[in-house]
Design goal:
Metallo-beta-lactamase, Chain A, seven-stranded mixed β-sheet, six-stranded mixed β-sheet, binds zinc ion, single chain, alpha/beta
Length: 232
């Protein structure tokens, strides 16, 4: 499996892209600027077969309209793509098309799949388990366990410290998580707590994404940059 870090920044970060990770042909999160980031790394939109959405904040979802227009302008509407996310996804996508004056004909070839929390689904070659996280007053914010080829990858953007975050740490080989700042707040994990989990679950490799512009580093956590690739 190939993991490509498309964006490793948070909303306020100056240069790095909004959080987005590509696992083979499955993209997780498509916030502002993600489509251009894919181009920067020579990843074609037609190569994506799945887009998984964690929650509806703009740094995770707001490039979806840009993605649809890009498919149209590149004559890719015959390519099939599955867009997967929390309950309410179809309504959000159609609402987004409406406010940006885009027609629903852009949804040609698009299958929308809404997931209920904690119910694992098999979608083609992937097993996908959505897990409810705690992200301030935002509901729902899903973390995911993505399983393929006997490897499990956890994605936890966005979340603060919560039981379900720890549940994901226990069950995955790689954890790609929200490490927004140095210290945890009610909406986001800080490097302080993320590092403690990395020490506690040392069979799992921890990767800090959704990072602000802080300089702190330590030996327990990996700090990928945009475009970095991890072959597992
Ligand atoms: Zn958020
Ligand atoms: Zn975010």
């Amino acid at each position: 499996m190939k993991i490509t870090f498309i964006g490793t920044g948070n909303m306020g970060c100056k240069l790095r892209g909004n959080p987005s990770v590509l696992i083979d042909d499955l993209l997780i999160d498509i916030g502002c600027g993600t489509v251009k980031q894919l181009g920067r790394f020579d990843i074609e939109t037609k190569s994506l077969k799945y887009i998984v959405i964690s929650h509806y904040h703009p740094d995770h979802f707001a490039d979806i309209g840009h993605f649809f227009v890009t498919r149209y302008s590149r004559n890719e509407l015959d390519n099939r793509i599955k867009i997967i996310g929390p309950i309410g996804l179809e309504e959000r996508i159609k609402g987004f098309l409406k406010i940006t004056e885009l027609g629903e004909e852009l949804l040609k070839g698009v299958e929308i799949i809404e997931l209920e929390e904690n119910i694992e689904v098999n979608i083609d070659k992937y097993k996908i388990k959505p897990i409810l996280l705690t992200h301030g007053r935002i509901k729902p914010s899903y973390g995911y366990i993505i399983e393929k080829d006997n490897k499990k990858i956890g994605y936890t953007c966005d979340t603060t410290v919560c039981e379900n975050f720890e549940e994901i740490c226990k069950n995955v080989d790689y954890l790609l998580g929200d490490v927004n700042g140095i210290t945890t707040n009610p909406a986001h994990m800080g490097l302080n707590d993320f590092t403690e989990y990395a020490k506690k679950y040392n069979n799992c490799k921890f990767y800090a994404i959704h990072r602000g512009d802080y300089e702190e580093r330590n030996e327990f956590v990996n700090f990928p940059e945009d475009g970095d690739v991890l072959n597992i």
